[in-house]
Amino acid sequence: MTQRVLTRLGRISPTSAFLGVGVLVFVALVLPGPVGGLVLLAVAAGAGWLLAQTWRLHPARARVIRLAILGLVVLLAVMKLT
């Protein structure tokens, strides 16, 4: 199943994927309190899963940057939940 999901994600245009995730994050930041926090956690969980599946394909520097961004999204989610 994982391979099937990754294959389908690989067909999506990078611009479309970026804009789609950007819209999700924006909506999560605008939604009030816990609802926005849960949406941000869902986005972070999806991005974390994707990062774990593609970890070997990224150079070390890109891994650090992606982990930092993922950490910031989780931090924002926790701040919205409290």
Features:
mainly alpha, globular, 4 helices, 84% helix, 0% strand, 82 residues
Give an overview in words.
The chain is 84% helix and 0% strand. The chain has 82 residues and is mainly alpha-helical. The chain has one domain. Helix 2 (14-30) runs antiparallel to helix 3. The model has no long low-confidence stretch (mean pLDDT 89).
Average per-residue pLDDT, rounded, comes to 89
Distance between the termini: 35 Å
Radius of gyration: 14 Å
Number of helices: 4
Q: What can be said about this structure in brief?
A:
The protein has one domain (2-81).
Topology overview:
Elements: H1 2-10, H2 14-30, H3 33-53, H4 60-81
